[in-house]
Amino acid sequence: MKSDRGDIELAGVCKSFDGATYVVDGVNLRIADGAYCCFIGPSGCGKTTILRMIAGHEDPTAGEIVIGGQNVVGLAPVQRRTAMMFQSYALFPHLTVRDNIAFALRVRGMSKADRLRAADAMIEKVRLTQFADRLPAQLSGGQQQRVALARAAITEPRVLLLDEPLSALDEQLRVQMRQELRRMQRELGITFIHVTHTQLEAIALADLVVVMEQGKIKQAGAARDVYAHPHDRYVAEFMGGQNVLSGRVEKVNGASFTLGQAAPSGIEVSLQARPTVSIGDKVDIAVRRDDVALVRPGRELPPGCTTSLPSRVLAIEYQGYFVKVMLDTVPEDEFVAYVPEKTFFADPFTVGDVVMATWATGSALPLA
Amino acid sequence: MQPSQTPPHANLAGWLYVSPLVLVLVPFFVAPILVVLAASFFATDGFGGLTPDFTLASYIDVLHSALTLKLYLATIKFTVLTWIFTLIIGFFVAYFLVFHVRNQLLAIGLFLLCTVPFWTSNIIRMISWIPLLGKEGLINQALLAMGVIRQPLEVLLFSDLAVVIAYVHQLTIFMIVPIFNSMARIDKKLIEAAIDAGASRFDIMRLIVVPMCKSGIALGTIFVVSIVMGDFFVVKVMSGGGSASVVSAFYEDVGVLQYPTAAASAVLLTLVLVAIVSLILRTVDIRQEITR
Hints:
The complex is a heterodimer.
Chain A: E1 8-15, E2 24-31, E3 36-40, H1 47-55, E4 62-67, E5 70-71, H2 77-80, E6 82-85, H3 97-107, H4 112-125, H5 141-153, E7 159-163, H6 171-188, E8 191-196, H7 199-205, E9 208-213, E10 216-221, H8 223-228, H9 233-239, E11 242-253, E12 256-260, E13 267-270, E14 282-288, E15 293-295, E16 305-318, E17 322-327, E18 335-340, H10 341-346, E19 354-360, E20 364-367
Helix pairs in contact in A: 3-4, 3-5, 4-5, 5-6
Chain B: H1 8-40, E1 43-44, E2 50-51, H2 57-64, H3 66-100, H4 104-113, H5 122-127, H6 130-133, H7 138-146, H8 160-184, H9 188-196, H10 201-212, H11 214-229, H12 233-238, H13 246-255, H14 259-283, H15 286-291
Antiparallel strand pairs in B: 1-2
Helix pairs in contact in B: 1-14, 2-14, 3-8, 3-11, 8-11, 11-14, 13-14
C-alpha cells in the first residue's frame, strides 16, 4: 500500500531542457514529513523546475525523486499524491469557486452531492463561504489565492507544492496570507514546498530554507541557520542583513585571525567556525548589520569590540524601530549598520559624519 | 456622468468616430435591406413591373406554398449536417494545432495550410471533386478494383452527399479560425492545473477546453449556418440540379421576374437567420467571452 508519509528525498536530480545546459544540476535534499520547506533564489535558479519535477509536471533528466519511500519519477501527479498551487493560481475562469474547488473530486468520479459537501467544508476552512457561487474574476487577489489553496488541498495530498503563491499580492496582503499559509499547513499536517524569491517570506515561513543558485543548492537549513550563519558570500548577500568584507589573512593567533583591511589594526575574527586558515589566504567574512555599533571617533569602544573601521556616513534611512546607516567602510562593498532607533536618536549622526564602525569580535563570521 | 452633461464637442467627436462605419453600413447594408423589404410589399404585373403598394400577397404566396416548407427542410438538413461535420473537424484541427503542436512556427504554418483551398475559386474547388467522386472517379475505381462494389456508386457525385462534402470542404476553415482563436487564449497553466487535479485527456476537453471555447464555437456556428442557409450555388452544382435550397427558389423567382415573391422569401430567410443567430447568442454570451 502506498505510504501516507510526505517526506521527500531528491537524489542527484538534474534537469536539462536542451541537453547542454542544466537548469537543475545535481540536487540532493531531504525534506521531512510535515515540514514547511522554502526554495529561494533569483529567477532562473531552477527552483520552480525542482518544484515542477516533484509535482510530476516535468521529468528529471537524471536522479531520483522519492516521496514517502517510493520513487515517483514517471508517475502522474495523482499517483504521487501531490497537489500544486500555481503561480497566478490558474483558476478555471468559467467555473464558480465551489466548482473550482470540487474539480479534482469531480474528475475522480465522486458523486455530485459528496463532492459539493466536501468542497463546502473546504470553502469554510478557507473562509470563502459567501463567495462560493462567484467566478474567480469576481474575487480579490487574496480570495483567489485562498481558492487556489483550497483547490489544491481538497484531494488531501501528502505534499502541497506552491509556486510563488504570494507574488501576485500587494505587500500588506502578502504578510496576511503568509500567516494563512502557515496556519493551513499546520492544520493539514502535510509537507508544503514553497518557491519564492522573497527572503523575508522564506525565513518567516519555513522550517527548512533552501538557497539556490544556478541549479545548485548553496545552503539548506533552518531559517535561523541560513540567515545568521550563511555558508558563503552568495548566501550572505542573497539572504541579506549581513555586511560581507573580504581580505587576506595577516596574522593567525590561537583562537582568532586578523584580516588585513583598510583599517590600520586589521579586522580580528574568531576562529571557531573555520579552524584552518593560514597567512595569505583570501577570506570573506560576514558581520550582521544589526551587530554593527557606531561610535564617534575618540570615544571608547563597547566591551568585546577589538576592530573599529573609520567610516563616513553616506546616507541615513529611518525604518521605524531601527535606523539604516549606510557607510563607506569598505571601498568595493556596501556596508550598512542597523542602529536601534533609541540609540540612534540619543546622539544622531548626519550624512558626512565620520564614525567608527565596530562589532564584538565573536560576531564576525568567516565564510567559505 | 449623466448623458445630459456630456459636452457638445464630445458628442461631435463620438459621431466622428462612428462615421466611417455608418458610411459603409448605410449604403451597403441598410439601404439594400430596406429596398428588399419595400419590394416585398409591392404589387407586380407578373412581367417584372412593380407598383408601389402595401400588399401581403407575396408573403401569403410564399407561406402557403408547400414548396417553402420542403425547401426549408432541405436547407436545414444541409445546414445541420454541414454544421456537425465542420464543428467536429474544426474543433479537432484547432485542438491539435493549439495543444499538440509545440512549435509555434509550425502551428502557424499548419494553420496557413488550412487556407490553401481558398487560394483558388469556389468553382474550381467544386469541380475538383468530380475526378474524385465521379462515376469514373478515383473512389469508385478504387472500390471497384478492390471488389468492394460491382457497380460504380452513383450517390457520390451530384447528390446530397456531394453537397454536404463540398460545404464541409469550404466551410471548415470558418470553424477552425474562431475556435483556434478562443482555444489559443486558454492559459496552458489551466491544462496543467487540471492534470494536477487528476483530469484525464477527455475530462480536460469536456470540462475545460470545450466550455472555454464556447464563444469560438458559437462564432463558427454563426458563420457556417448563415453561409449554408444563404447559399444556392453549391447545392445547384454539387447536386447536379437534383436538390434545391431556400435561396435557389428565390433565385428562380428573380429569373422569372417575380421580384416581390423573391423579396418576401428573402425577408423571411433573414428573419429565420436572425432568430437562429439570436438563439446562438442567447446560449453563449459572446460579448462577455470576448472581453474576458
